[in-house]
Amino acid sequence: MASGEESPKTAVGGLSVLSVDKGDFKITFDKNVPGERERAAKTVEDLLKRGYAIMVDLPNGKTRRVRKFNSKTCEYIIKDVPPAELPAQAPKELAIRAETVEATAIARPARGCAREAW
Description:
Blueprint: E1 14-18, E2 25-28, H1 36-49, E3 53-57, E4 63-65, E5 68-70, E6 75-79, E7 93-97, E8 102-106
Parallel strand pairs: 1-8
Antiparallel strand pairs: 1-2, 3-4, 3-8, 5-6, 6-7
């Protein structure tokens, strides 16, 4: 590498958490940082249990809501995906590795106190 050039960085997906109570923060799923993926996975599971809406920006430019999270593989599970957005012969849900996408978690109060389910 020539002098003055930056080393290439690997993209690490993140989750921006919008929280009225604790303030906004961001977590990442960098497997090169010891314990970071495990902490991030626990945080995502906790957010889903508490009713946060987690929205993922997919590589095709679409945004979809996460319904479940696989903490062993660090994958967001998206259900009800239109067939046109799924690979051929894919199940009706889509698993997206968290370290490959950007996502946003929105707390219930930040969603305008909507009474109906999102």
